[in-house]
Amino acid sequence: xxxxxxxxxxxxxxxxxxxxxxxxxxxxxxxxxxxxxxxxxxxxxxxxxxxxxxxxxxxxxxxxxxxxxxxxxxxxxxxxxxxxxxxxxxxxxxxxxxxxxxxxxxxxxxxxxxxxxxx
Length: 119
Prior knowledge:
The protein has a single domain (about 5-95), classed as Arc Repressor Mutant, subunit A (Orthogonal Bundle). The chain is built from 2 helices and 4 strands; from the N terminus they run ββββαα. The protein has helices spanning about 55-75, 80-95, and strands at about 5-10, 10-15, 30-35, 40. The chain has a 4-stranded mixed β-sheet with strand order 1-2-4-3, covered by helices on one side. Residues about 105-119 have low confidence and may be disordered.
């Protein structure tokens, strides 16, 4: 997954701080601040070890869902729903090779490769 420096959601542009250190809350991997339009992502655990790639990617998707929910749904999703959507979306994207830095599966139920999508 590519984590960009900024992300446009609706009419808002969120800056992405990928190397944020959550000194105020030790258990956070990511956070969406809708007042300042910043998505913060921690790449290093408090032990000094790198945060697992899967945890970073899923947490980033989780925060994107928070931003989308606020802009298009009035922020009505509960935290459990956001968590479940992020986990499900991450599984689908990962298992089907849909991240930009991963190769798609070479075989599937309907053919031998991925389709090229046009506009």
